[in-house]
Amino acid sequence: MVRSLWSGATGMLAQQTAVDTISNNIANVNTTGYKTSQNEFKSLLYQELQTKTTTANAEPKPIDSQVGLGVRSSSITTIFRQGAFLESASDSSFAIDGKGFFAVKRSDGSTAYTRNGDFHWATTTTGLALTDSDGNAVLDSQGREIKLNGDYTTSRITLSQEGDLCYPDEKNNPRSMGIKIGAWQFNNPAGLEKLSDSLYLVSDASGEAMNEFTNNNLDKSRVVQGYLEGSNVQLADEMVNLIVAQRAYEANSRVITTTDTMMQQANQLKQ
Hints:
Elements: H1 2-27, E1 37-43, E2 46-50, E3 65-68, E4 71-78, E5 85-87, E6 94-97, E7 102-105, E8 111-114, E9 120-123, E10 127-131, E11 137-138, E12 147-149, E13 158-159, E14 164-168, E15 174-180, E16 184-185, E17 193-194, E18 199-201, E19 210-211, E20 222-225, E21 227-229, H2 235-267
Antiparallel strand pairs: 1-4, 2-3, 5-21, 6-20, 7-8, 7-11, 8-18, 9-10, 10-12, 13-14, 14-15, 16-19, 17-18
Helix pairs in contact: 1-2
């Protein structure tokens, strides 16, 4: 009978993790480039109560008797479904249409990847640099920081269909500046290590980053100027999942109270 106590407790813990995951999705429903997460469960060990044997008539029993010992959270998977494009008033806002990720260089020198294209032109001692909202430098298709030398009016910088940054010449015709915003893909994006600020790091599970500019076997992503990719969280689905997780939590708590009542009645048999 004690098995049911532990099974109910593991169920409550697993459903609490599910509620935590759902609440994080709902909290980031308006976060640019956020990707929804989904909790997955696995059953725990099984205890064998009776092995395969024969009946009283010597007929073989085809199955044995096993009872499970509860549940646990096995993983929290990120769903990299395309989010809706939201129009932005900023000329340095970019959205990726496809499987690609932007790359930024962090302050410690490491490279992180993101779907959040809310970038800004920062003034430096040598000119301008394209950065994210935290000041991390955005990388081009060659893996170099995007920097501009000289005097440029950032509002006149446009993006071509091929992803090249362009600036108008004397006749006001856009001319390529020789800089292409980089985009990278992964064999298993769900294996990326999550950081704050919608950033991801390469892991053994994700595989190495593949540069779309140098890898011809990849479906090229399209970078769109003047738009941002919104969160792919479906609020209606999350609210339904929250109700289901809450009911499952209540059911597991009822298992514990029922088992406690049964044990109490068993203790009272001798009275």
